[in-house]
Amino acid sequence: MPAFIRIAWKVVFDAVWHFSEDDGWAMASHVALSTLLAIFPFLIFGTALGSFLGADQFATTAVHFIFDTWPESIAKPISDEVVRVLTIPRGGLLTVSVLAAAYFASNGVEALRVSLNRAYRVAESRPWYKTRVASLAFVLAAVLVLAIVSLLLVAVPLAIRYFGTYLPWFNTLLTMIDSWSLAGVFVMLTTGLIVSHLWLPDGHRKIMDVLPGVILTLIAWSIGAYVFASYLATFANYVSTYAGLASIMIALVFLYIVGVIFILGAEINAAILKYKVKRMVMRSFRGAKDDEIKAADGPGEAGTSEKKSL
């Protein structure tokens, strides 16, 4: 068996074994439920803050960035309900309900942090209030990023159309920007995964330490979304089983699959790091052992040469 395949098998086996032994299936359920519970509060808080900052298109931008990566059969019922919720007028930014929405949105980040700590096999050493503040900071940062993107998506096309009357080649640029929307979602998703793996769990990691799991997560998410959408279109009939709760159940099952893949990506990173450390220890051990053998053989060889000279 080639060395690369043997190493890959050891890494995957270690990751899957630790995932099963450390309640990975239950943690994926926790991530799925917490994510679903966090989506509406996050969008409510983001819409209020976006309106306060002048980003009136925040809701539309956020819905596209969140749900465009989901299969349409799963995303459409949820996104329709989200739009209905976000069209309800609210009194202002600093209200109890909006602040509570920010807190509940941070619960989704907390679920990701706990699952990543388990996957990377580290114990949380930070106080609970620091981790909660960090989770709220993640929510606020995500809202600000989406608010800036929504402002740009409104301002940039208007500017290009204005200048397009004088410079026709600007219209080509506008077409290119419109066609890059899915690429923008992919870039933001990749960035979010890297930031989550680097800063959410305890400890310190480099980008190259988390990149393998992030890449595998993106690939597995794409395959999993396609397979699950095909399954829904071909075999599943959730409506007859769950009636009015069908869209929620479908979303939960989909988010559960997403959660399993997300945690396994971190498990792969942890297994690779474990294998690297093991190899470093083995190399240092072998190096020390070789030095001891050389040190032990040195005087003996010298004595032998002296005997030969006599």
Walk me through what this model shows:
This protein is mainly α and 310 residues long. Helix content is 85%, strand content 0%. Helix 2 crosses helix 11 (246-309), helix 4 (72-86) packs across helix 11 (246-309) and helix 8 (181-199) crosses helix 9. It is globular. The protein starts with a helix and ends with a helix.
Quick description:
85% of the residues lie in helices and 0% in strands. It has 11 helices and no strands. α2 (24-53) packs antiparallel against α5.
| Overall morphology | globular
Sheet of most strands = none
Total number of helices: 11
The helix content, as a percent range, equals over 70%
Distance between the termini: 53 Å
Number of strands: 0
> What is the N-to-C order of secondary-structure elements (H for helix, E for strand)?
HHHHHHHHHHH
- Poorly predicted regions are 301-310
Rounded to the nearest angstrom, the radius of gyration is 26 Å
Strand content: under 5%
Structural class: mainly alpha
Give the overall average pLDDT. Answer: 77
Attribute tags:
mainly alpha
Write the layout of secondary structure elements.
Blueprint: H1 3-21, H2 24-53, H3 58-67, H4 72-86, H5 96-119, H6 128-164, H7 169-179, H8 181-199, H9 207-234, H10 238-242, H11 246-309
